[in-house]
Design goal:
The chain is an alpha+beta fold. 34% of the residues lie in helices and 17% in strands.
Length: 126
């Protein structure tokens, strides 16, 4: 079982439109049938690199204690254009999803909690 977040570049939608915005971005970039990859934007690339500075990639040989929170690898392969879809171990979801949401807010990105079908708070919201 995984805990999933989506993080994207762009305007933060109203809460009432967040799920629609997520679905449209997911369909356009992640869930599409075209097998050609769309390179992640510089902002998404920087976000993923920041995540990997904090936690090992799944399967990284340096992760001898199996502390990687990700459920697949490479993490960058989940990024397409302005969006990344993050799947993490459910057992680590509370800490990791909060840190991912905080880093997204600090980076000017939008974080959407797929389980709760709602936006995660920004750095200035409680």
């Amino acid at each position: 079982m995984t805990y999933d977040l989506a993080v994207w570049e762009g305007e933060r939608p109203d809460e009432s439109n967040a799920a629609v915005t997520f679905s449209a971005l997911y369909d356009q970039y992640i869930g599409r049938d075209d097998p050609r990859l769309i390179p992640p934007t510089p902002a998404i690339t920087a976000y993923v690199e920041s995540l990997l500075d904090r936690w090992y990639e799944m399967g990284d040989p340096r992760d001898v204690d199996d502390t990687s929170p990700w459920s697949d690898a490479p993490l960058m392969s989940n990024a397409q254009g302005p969006i990344i879809y993050l799947a993490m171990r459910y057992s680590m979801a509370a800490e990791v999803s909060a840190a991912c949401a905080h880093l997204a807010a600090e980076s000017g990105l939008v974080c959407f909690d797929v389980q709760w079908n709602q936006l995660r708070p920004t750095a200035t919201e409680s």
